Structures are given as C-alpha cells and as structure tokens.
Amino acid sequence: MTPKQQYYKNLADTMISRLEKRGFEASFVPDRQAALEAIMPYLTNGNTVSCGGSITLNEIGFNSAVKDANCTFLDRTTAKTPEEKDALYSKVAVCDYYFMSTNAITTDGLLVNIDGYGNRVASLIHGPKNVIIITGMNKVCPDLDSAYKRVKLSAAPPNAVRLDKKTPCAVTGKCADCLSPDCICTHTVITRRSNIPGRIKILLVGEELGY
User: Fold this and answer.
1) Which residues lie across from 201 on neighbouring strands?
2) Closest Cα to residue 109, out of 25, 31, 34, 5?
3) Torsion 12-95-164-31 (CA) sign
4) How far is residue 30 from each of residues 91, 204, 206, measured CA to CA in Å?
C-alpha cells in the first residue's frame, strides 16, 4: 500500500463509523482491482442488476464484468425509443442491485449528487432493493459546502464535455449556473442517512476514480 493509499485508508476508517451511524454499510478497498473483486458476488445468477452512467464504474471494470456475468443486466443504453426506456426503467426501479458512484461525499457521511434527468438519484432514493456506491477517495470533501462546490466545479464540467452537452461549463470549464436545455445540473440530492439499514452500501476505494 502506497503512502497515499494508507492516508486514504486512515481517512476511510474514520468515515466508516460515521457512515454506519447513518444506516449505510461501508467498507474500504485499496484499489480498483479490489473494488471489482468486492462487487463480483453481487453479479451472480438470479440477481437483477442495473447501473447509472459512471466513469468510476467503467474505470474499475464493472461495465465489462457485468456483461460477462450470469446476472440479469438491465442495460439502460440499449433502450432506443421512449417506450423501451419506460419499460426498462420500470424494471430498474425494482432491481436487486443498482450500481452507481457519488459526485461527492463528506467526511461526516453525507452524499451529494447532481443529476440531469434524475434517473440515477431516483434509484438512490427509492426502488432498488440494494444500492452499491463505489467512490474514489478523491471525492471526499470536508463539509457539505465544499462537496457541493466540488460537484459544480470539478464534476459537472467534465461530465458535460463527456456527454457532448452544449453548456457554458463545457466550453469554459466553469459553472455558470445556467438554465441551458442541455444542463445536467437539474436535481440536487443530499442523502444524509438510509431509512432502510444497509440498503445503501458504500465502497470507498483508495485511489482517484471518476470526476
């Protein structure tokens, strides 16, 4: 374990007890390979699985692994028409495991997420039996204000570029608090606890992942 990974582990150890007080399950792994190994037991025969759009999931190898696994994968990218999307999302709403990352997480255990259409945060809030959140420790922030700023300044602009959105931040790299038709900052959700203990499972990864 590198000095930086040890630092991340020390920070994660402090955070885990706080997350558990909020009704989350939480654990730490040192790197992306260990993260993928940790989630493989969920990708088994009989489980219905879906996910939100996430650079982090792609970086740990989830996108490839889930397609090769024996689980039933509800792939949102396969829906081509509004009717297909409606049918798919109705199944996602009751899936066994929903995988996502988080835009930011505070050392005290608050999750901060900003969405364009809201399907990702909707699944976080209600529906799927289990929500598995995989996040690099680079997304840890000291408080709610810095977490919100992180999303607006460090996460949303590169995501707008990745999604080819015609927004000011995609051009300037700086949030303009816009109301553009392409704006991906429509819904802001702060998750401070899990009403169903253990439903939200947070895997802290000791390296930099995602935006």
Assistant:
1) 25, 132
2) 25
3) positive
4) 33, 8, 4
* pTM: predicted TM-score of the whole model, two decimal places: 0.95
Which parts of the chain are beta strand (E)? Answer: 25-29, 48-51, 72-74, 97-100, 104-106, 111-115, 130-136, 140-141, 187-191, 200-205
pLDDT single digits (tens) 33-50 = 999 999 999 999 999 999
**Distances, alpha carbon 165 to alpha carbons 12, 41, 174, 180, in Å:** 34, 36, 14, 9
Q: Is the pLDDT of residue 135 over 90?
A: yes
User: Judging by beta carbons within 10 Å of its beta carbon (0-12, 13-18, 19+), is residue 53 exposed, middle or buried?
Assistant: middle
Query: Could you give the CA distance from residue 101 to residue 132 in angstroms, rounded to a whole number?
Result: 8
Report which residue type is found at 162.
R
Contacts of 2 (CB under 8 A, 6+ apart): none
Residue 134 tokens read as 């995989």
